[in-house]
User: Fold this.
Amino acid sequence: MAALEDDNVNVIGVYGMGGMGKTTLVREAARQVKKKKLFDEVVFVSVTQTPNMVNIQDEIAEKLGLKIEERSVDVRAAQLHDRLKKIINVLIILDDIWVTLDLEALGIPSIDDHKGCKILMTSRRQEVLKSMGSQKVLPIELLEEDEAWKLFKNVAGTIAERSDLQPTAEKVAQKCARLPIAIATVAKALKHKENLYEWEDDLERELSGDVHSAIKMS
Assistant:
């Protein structure tokens, strides 16, 4: 949020391994900037592993209320560029970037061209964000142990603290290796299981391997 409010920072990158909550984080950032009315427009686009320039342009245009009929990427980029320059303050969030994208080829104005255009990007790869001109690159780390347990309890509910279940619940939470997606999915899967043997069975059978087993369990 500090970076988003800093007039000297226009391109921000957030990186971390899959399942760390990057998308959740930037969605919450978008919600907060809308609440604070920091930008006139906020555009959220999921890029994905196999980005399609036309699809990304369409998604940005749609969220700006702009209809582009042209199929030429260059012409579309020029139309998007013109539309974005008319917005005094705009935040564009590009989520889940796997490879370097040419932002200007998409139609997103450069810093020199439009100071009021801010870009927030997420990726698993720090080098991708740097190659795209991120002025500030923020890592998303694994949760601390106490944070991991708190999240597990929040998702699983009061059953996780039931006296006969809590020791096993704590072991299950530890097996999730402080990874938010693993904690959330496993806790959700177990929250309606009332019997200790069910928790122990899942701990033994489903979570006996590494954290990837925890994700698979969902």
Summary: Strands lie at 11-15, 41-48, 90-97, 117-123, 136-139. The CA atoms of residues 1 and 67 lie 31 Å apart.
